[in-house]
Each structure stands twice: as structure tokens, then as C-alpha cells.
Amino acid sequence: MHRRTLALGALAAALLSGGVHAQDKPPLRILVGFPPGGSADVIARLVGDALRDDFSPVIVENRPGAGGRIALAAVKNAKPDGQTVIILPSGPMVLFPHVYKKLEYDAVRDFTPVSLLARFQFGVVSGPASNVKSVAEMLAKAKADPKAATYGSAGSGTLPHFMGVMMEQATGVPLTHVPFQGSSPANTALLGGHVGYKFDVVSETAELHHAGKVRIIGVTGTRRDPQVPEVPTLKEQGIAMEATAFFAMYAPAGLPPATLVRLEKAVAAAVHKPALQDRLVKLGYEPVGSTSGELAAAQKADLARWEKPIKATGITLD
């Protein structure tokens, strides 16, 4: 009994002093620059749940506005202790530096890359107005009747918009961009025959494709998309064009090396958990879970990739 009392006393002392392993878990606040329910929010909450073995508590905080720039500014100014991070799509880190005249942040200098979480690709979609079955047929029709070569997107300055510009540059065939306020209005216009084509994230159109209402005629990644495995890549169809986007985690600049190593290893391990991988695949994403260096390299490559098509449009925003 005396030994048991001593053991309980030692445990109580350890709890009070924080000596138990559970007490060693640091907190983690994940900022999301978009409203609840969107893709960035969903991925942040899935990753956050998978990180609860390493951090406690894990809090996902939505700070929507300005295309994610409000949340990015908050992370930029946060203490670099590994306890405040952001999960976001690649646009604010690889497109905005080319589009905006003034940004509240420097996409390279102000942040520490932590891990590339998942990649996704885009589809070239044919609607009832065009009714074409391949990219070659689309380009032939566009050459014969340029006025009919209209494509919709989720808005000017978005990745789908620049996908169309990139295809023009890769093929020499002019296309006419018609911007909409989001993917849903673009789908409505495509279904109604108001535009002949659409560039969009594959998951936004896969259901309509499988229902036979539209046809995805090509995908922009390095391999076929598991949501539409019957659809060839643009490279398979002879188009020298390849482009994907990603979701990633960043921390403030100046993160201590040991803190970064702990964080990137925990995040990569979380993304590689089978349950999380299964959820991401079902949502239409390719799970990655990379090192900090691999994310930095991916960001650098995409910054260079998008510079030419963006400058070709002449689009600049304040």
C-alpha cells in the first residue's frame, strides 16, 4: 500500500509539473483564409484532426477575405514558434505575386514552407454548344470559327482563366475568355450553351461528366485523374501543356530549424495516414505530404510557370 501511495504521488507531481507526455503536446492554430465549408476549410479540418496525436489543442480558425490575403497577413505577423500556421491553395502564393501591384506580404520571404499537402488538376470541358469529343476536335473547330471558341471560368485572374491562356500559348489557337462569378455560374452557362467550353478543377465537373451532361476532354496534370480515368491528359493528346495546383501549409518566416523539422514530420505523417489519404482521394485530391524543401521547390516552379501566361493577359489588380 505504501508503494502504491508513493506511485500515485509521483504521478500527481508529474501531472502538476507537466512531466507527462500528453502535456508535452504544443498547441496548433491553423488559419484558413476562406469561409467554412469550402475546400481549403475542409482540408484544414481533415489535416487538423490527423494532427491531434502531436498537438493539443488543434484549432482551425477561419479568417476569410481578400482571396486569403487577410489570413496570410495574420500568419506573417504571428510569432514564429510553430504554433500558428496557414493551410491554403497555391493561388495566393504563386498567382497573386504576378497579378497584384501591391501585396501585404512577400510570398517567399515572409513565410516558411512546411508541407505540400495535396495536388489537384484541371479539366478542359466541352459543353452542349460545342459537343466535341477531344482537344484536337476543339482546336480544329476553334480555328474554323474563332467566335465560337468561348470558354468560361470561375472569374478573371483565376487559375482556370490562366489555363485557357496557357492553352492558347501552347497551341497558337486563340480562345475567348468569358468570366463568371464562381464555378457554379460557369457550369450553368456551359450547360445552357452560352459558352462552348470551360476550364475548371476536375472535381467541380466530374459529376456532370459522368451524367453525360458535359464532357471532360482532357486533364492538365502529369497523369490521368482517378475521378475520370478514361480522360487522357493534354500531353497524351499532343499538347505541350502541364499544370496542377496544390494545397499547402506555411508558417511565419524565421521558424527555428528544430521546430520546422518537428512540424513538417508531423504533417507529412498525418497526410500519409490511410484514413486521411482515402478522404482526400474521394474529394478529388492527390495526397502528398512533403518536406519543407519540396514545397519550396514546388512553389518556385509554379511561380515561374504562371508568370508568362499571366503577363500575356495584362491583368493587374490593386
User: Under the CATH scheme, which class of the largest domain?
Assistant: Alpha Beta
Shape: globular
Q: What is the radius of gyration computed over CA atoms, rounded to a whole number of angstroms?
A: 23 Å
Largest sheet: 10 strands, mixed
Classify the beta-strand content into a percent band: 15-25%
Please count the helical segments. Answer: 12
CATH topology tier name of the largest domain: D-Maltodextrin-Binding Protein, domain 2
Q: Span from first to last CA?
A: 74 Å
Structural class estimated from helices and strands: alpha/beta
Family: Belongs to the UPF0065 (bug) family.
Keywords: Signal
Signal peptide: 1-22
Pfam family, one: TctC
Write structural notes for this entry.
Strands 1, 2, 3, 4, 5, 6, 7, 8, 9 and 10 form a ten-stranded mixed beta sheet that branches. It is globular, with a radius of gyration of 23 Å. The chain has helices at residues 2-17, 39-50, 69-76, 91-94, 96-99, 135-144, 159-171, 183-191, 202-210, 257-271, 274-282, 292-313, and strands spanning 28-32, 58-62, 84-89, 111-126, 150-153, 176-179, 197-201, 215-219, 244-252, 286-287. Helix 7 (159-171) packs across helix 12 (292-313). With 318 residues, the chain is an alpha/beta fold. The chain has two domains: 26-119 and 244-313, D-Maltodextrin-Binding Protein, domain 2, CATH 3.40.190.150; 121-237, Periplasmic binding protein-like II (D-Maltodextrin-Binding Protein, domain 2), CATH 3.40.190. Strand 1, helix 2 (39-50) and strand 2 form a beta-alpha-beta unit. It starts with a helix and ends in a 5-residue tail after the last helix. It has twelve helices and ten strands.
